[in-house]
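Reminder to self: tokens first, then the designed residues, so the page reads top to bottom the way the pipeline ran.
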């Protein structure tokens, strides 16, 4: 039997997301009543590249990764997805198949807003349509930066940029799943190369690598290694 509190939980989650905060309370509760909640275990596939899209996904808790996979099995991580993030927008609004595979990295809960519901909301709520356009533009920018990094920057520069982007007040928490293999797949290389790059940055006094976090010690120097100096 469905949990009677689920629509309230979903409405509260949706209201906290910038993507949907232009919707009024009544609309959010209406959407939440048709949203579908699913839970996933680590390494469980949420959907595969090429599958048809069921709707827009919102992460309630947990972490996931969006990947492309080569014929030899090698992964390229496109993005990590955490609490409060929205994904699968391209498939929903382009009426196309899922462009990437999404896999849970830890126990995760996801709400899916059906595609027909999202299209109706776009027709009825112009501010939401503007938010969708902005979000899709940001995703294009992210992919352009990813291509630039993979094509034009060294592994050490890509690593330095990633640390700067993901650090919170000069601290980058290390999730249990954030292995060097996962980091290598994010940066388009192999774990041994990532290990050498981390050691090089640490030996030069730019970062301090600890079990549960990476601390940025010299932000200006790390920005220079990333090619971000002004």
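Designed residues (230 positions):
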């Amino acid at each position: 039997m469905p949990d009677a509190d689920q629509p309230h939980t979903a409405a509260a989650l949706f209201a906290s997301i910038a993507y949907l905060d232009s919707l009024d309370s009544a609309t959010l509760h209406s959407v939440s009543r048709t949203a579908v909640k699913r839970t996933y275990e680590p390494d469980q596939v949420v959907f595969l590249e090429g599958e048809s899209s069921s709707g827009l996904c919102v992460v309630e808790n947990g972490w996931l990764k969006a990947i492309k996979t080569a014929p030899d099995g090698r992964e390229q991580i496109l993005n990590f997805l955490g609490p409060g993030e929205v994904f699968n927008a391209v498939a929903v609004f382009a009426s196309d198949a899922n462009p990437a595979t999404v896999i849970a990295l830890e126990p995760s809960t996801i709400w899916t807003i059906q595609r027909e519901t999202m299209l109706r909301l776009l027709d009825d709520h112009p501010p939401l349509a503007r938010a969708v356009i902005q979000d899709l533009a940001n995703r294009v920018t992210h992919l352009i930066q990813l291509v630039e990094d993979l094509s034009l920057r060294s592994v050490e520069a890509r690593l330095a940029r990633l640390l700067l982007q993901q650090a919170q007040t000069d601290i980058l928490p290390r999730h249990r799943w954030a292995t060097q293999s996962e980091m290598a797949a994010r940066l388009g290389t192999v774990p041994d190369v990532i290990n050498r790059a981390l050691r090089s940055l640490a030996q030069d006094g730019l970062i301090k690598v600890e079990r549960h976090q990476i601390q940025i010690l010299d932000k200006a120097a790390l920005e220079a290694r990333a090619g971000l100096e002004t």
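The chain is about 45% helix and 20% strand.
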